[in-house]
Amino acid sequence: MNLIYIFIMYTDLNIIIPCKNEAKNLEFIIPKLLQYCDDITVVDGNSKDETEEICKKFNVTFVKDNNLGKGDAQRVGASLTKKKYLIFFDADGSHEETDVPKLYNKINEDSIDLVICSRKTGGSHDLISNTSWGGFVRAVGTDFLSILLNKLFKTRISDVLYSLKAIEKEKFDKLETKENHFGIELDIILQSIKKKYSIYELPSREKKRVFGESKLKTITGIYFIFQIIKFRLFN
Known about the structure:
Elements: E1 13-19, H1 23-33, E2 40-44, H2 51-58, E3 61-64, H3 70-80, E4 85-88, H4 100-107, E5 114-118, H5 119-122, H6 125-129, H7 133-153, E6 165-168, H8 169-175, H9 184-194, E7 199-203, H10 220-234
Parallel strand pairs: 1-2, 1-4, 2-3, 5-7
Antiparallel strand pairs: 4-6, 5-6
Helix pairs in contact: 1-2, 7-10
């Protein structure tokens, strides 16, 4: 039996992909995302590979950030779009593109302000299937950060670091995030808690990075602990 797949194009959505030297991965994921959205913005952090050429090949927007990091790239992308909704999607190929409709449908609900995804409920190659020592440390560290944040802010979030998210552009702008690097994921959640945004957590499976190596160092977890505690003390 032949299966027929029907893809719905979301015309009021912009997918923002922060990246640095991820040309091979972009060539893999952009065609998949174009099945759902033709407004894709690749925000580049001064790459030395063929990132710009890949964007031209698929006719998606290519812009440069201020070379400050992932958080800065998200804000640059959001500032340029006229679309109502944003989805932040990583450039390494680990995010599940079939989650785009789920994210879009949820963020369209009036009672939800921010949709985040959880590898703890959806599965993860890096946190669960990765049996290396580094994988173990990251899995335990991610759990600890979630417990810490939940205890301090009386929330029930199972994964505070996963970067696949959806939010209205206007509400993202109101968060006034400040983090430039990987702390942006916690920054979005913490600022949303401060704004009393309704947060919905969606199960999502994290796949193995397609090409290259992760730019997030395990030691960064120490900064994340400081970030959570500092926010609790001064906000």
